[in-house]
Write a structure and sequence with these properties.
The protein has 315 residues and is of the alpha/beta class. Helix content is 35%, strand content 16%.
Length: 315
């Protein structure tokens, strides 16, 4: 296999780099555009790409790689890859679903608990010395036993909902069509109706043009002043300007966010707010899950080079 040329786009952990280098002739580049700077004779040999990151990979990149047959994405979200352009050129695309569902769902629930129970503020209260000086932390809010809504009841959305059900919550959801769920769960045909009927709104949509701004100003307004919004999908799925206005003006009670537009250079207005819990897009960020993601990416690469069916095809 060492004769098979592979481009690795993005920053990989050493265990992934070693595994790819042992099986392929590896060419590492930091981002998609750096592919264009590789020598023409190298680009002519490359049949597959291990893709990691969020820099767009589109037609001009594909055209520079005449032998390309697979883009193996590291992560479940593949919105940075122009899948339509790949399909037109008979280039396969794969991703790494399922292996990260638990970690992302765990973080979604943690964001709600941190927001409602003021866990970050509580830690600061102890570390700063305010506890002996000022006494008890100001009262926070109960998290369990309320109404939760999931926008996008896919693999991750379902894991979130199952966890919230254990917190004695009433489960509502919105998706393109009703899902096979417990009878007590309520389907909503549009996200505004969903937001109006719940206390907590969890966004678990796929990224991309189709879902850009899906959680609109109208959805955020429908959630109301006692509502909390949690986003573990993509920053693009929410009207971020409307969200900031709602957080600043009391339109909603708070938010827990793992994703943003223009990350890591997020809107500085978020940093001035005390009613939002901020995380650095680390939903799948555990050693166990990242190793599993890398393994699944390599399993798809191995299947492609062996002429076998991909394990987790996108197109």
């Amino acid at each position: 296999m060492a004769g098979n040329h592979l481009i690795a786009i993005g920053s990989y952990f050493e265990w992934d780099r070693e595994a790819m280098a042992s099986g392929y002739t590896l060419h590492e580049v930091p981002n998609a555009d750096a592919v264009l700077d590789l020598p023409a004779d190298v680009r002519a040999e490359v049949r597959a790409i291990a893709f990691k990151g969020h820099t767009p990979f589109g037609e001009r990149h594909m055209e520079s790689l005449p032998a390309l047959g697979l883009i193996a994405n590291y992560g479940v979200g593949f919105d940075a890859i122009d899948v339509a352009a790949a399909s037109e050129r008979n280039i396969q695309v794969s991703n790494t679903p399922d292996v990260l569902n638990d970690d992302v769902a765990d973080l979604a629930v943690a964001l709600l608990l941190a927001q409602s129970r003021k866990l970050i503020e509580g830690s600061t209260w102890v570390r700063s010395g305010d506890w002996p000086k000022k006494g008890e932390l100001p009262l926070n809010r109960k998290a369990s036993g309320r109404r939760a809504g999931i926008v996008g009841l896919g693999r991750i959305g379902r894991e979130i909902a199952d966890r919230l059900a254990a917190f004695k919550m009433e489960i509502h959801y919105h998706s393109r069509s009703p899902k096979d769920t417990p009878r007590s769960w309520t389907f909503h045909a549009d996200p505004v109706s969903l937001a109006r009927d719940v206390d907590y709104l969890f966004v678990a949509l796929v990224g991309g043009k189709e879902t850009a701004g899906y959680v609109s100003r109208q959805v955020i307004e429908a959630l109301g002043p006692d509502g909390i919004l949690i986003n573990i999908s993509r920053g693009s799925t929410i009207d971020e300007a409307a969200l900031l206005e709602a957080l600043e003006n009391g339109g909603i009670r708070g938010a827990g966010l793992d994703v943003f537009n223009n990350e890591p250079n997020i809107d500085p207005r978020f940093l001035e707010l005390d009613n939002v819990v901020l995380q650095p897009h680390q939903g799948s960020g555990t050693i166990e899950t990242r190793k599993a993601m890398g393994q699944l990416q390599r399993d798809n690469l191995a299947a492609f080079f062996a002429g076998e069916k991909l394990l987790t095809p996108v197109n």
